[in-house]
Design a protein that fits this description.
alpha+beta; Alpha-Beta Plaits; Formate dehydrogenase/DMSO reductase fold; 2 domains; 14 helices; globular
Amino acid sequence: MTYAFNFDASACTGCKACQEACKDKNQLPVGVMWRRVIEVAGGEWTQAGGAWVNSVFAYNLSIACNHCVHPKCAGVCPTDAFVTRPDGIVYIDSSRCMGCGYCSWACPYSAPRYNPEQGQMAKCNFCMDDIDAGLPPACVAACPTRVLNFVSVTPSPLPQGAKQGVSVLWEIPATQHPFPLPNTSRTEPHLMVNPHVAMNNLLEKKIANYEEIRPKKQKSETSLIVFTVLVQMAVGAFWAAQWMVDPIPLSANLAIGACLGLGGLFSFAHLGAKRNAWHAVSHLKKSWLSREILYVGSFGAGWLTGMMPLPPSWLEGVGLVTFLLGIGLIFSMAQVYRLHTMPAWDTWRTPAGFFITSILLGHLAMINLLQTTRVFPWVLIAALLALELGLTLTTKSKVGGAANSLRVGLIVAAALGAGIICILPNLTGMWSMLILFMLVMIEEIIGRALFYTALEDKLL
């Protein structure tokens, strides 16, 4: 037996008793809602001769976790904290969740929410304690007009007496799901909707109570931006040092380790439940975040081994293995950001951009540290900046506005500066190298911040 929610949008009054019952039963703090009643409105008044006619409409959609057939949240969780019961109910094991928030990134319905009091992610669990006791979920029990119900998917998804025309969402493509449910979801949500007549019109629809139902930001993503940029720079610096100098000086090795270690500390600081961080590599089979964490540790181990007094032939082997681990790290890091919920980032451009960032920042860091005046690194930097400019200008993302324009300007300035140095290498000096490094660093930070801006915009 598998359960699904059944909602009759044609008769919902928008009283939000279901929303309040869920919040009350689960004692959720301010700003955290597992069930939300979304108010959708649209249409307009137009003049027709001496009369005014309207196409105004409004309807409500009560939505919580849909306990999907293919829950994306469970697939991406690095600690494997999501459990799917035989009856299809998906819940979070609080003994494993470390509060990283990645499940919320991947969920098309923004169901998992960060609970600041627990430092962990939490979501609707279908009131499984009530279900096990033979009682309905709190939201269902609270609905005064009985438009919210739950049904058994097997043997038949349509209960006796169900209205005809009900949309069984896990059986139809997401492009046919009612607004504002995302039309790109692949999770097959266990939700049935008896549609409101306005759901099928072709007029523009907008969420009227967006400020009420959107997740309240409980923690900053700055630590993740710092982690991403520093670790990418550490990997790129290691690559650059392999061919720029032989042997690699202690100062360069220490700088690489410092970036890697500091980035790791910022990543760890982001976690809400740090006590569960040791579970982070428990889901290597499916979670790219789990793989990224393993690669960070492996790359760090390779870097540390290369610092030891080993025979030269051994050090060459260690350097090669660490070089390859760096490639795996940057690729897995890019895959973490390639989410189906973020179409503009779910392309080849993301790994391409991450590798460009690593090489750019790494080479600029080594150039500044080693004070090299060789021309070839600057040719490489100028070429990579030109590539990055092309990627940025052709991206499909529509967020950023002024911030994105500033980033483009910084890339152009850095590319021109690198190009001038290629032509006039005598201009290479401490200040010119440092300025170019800072230009690239700032534009990369802006690029990462734009991802989180877009991530907030996609949340229901």
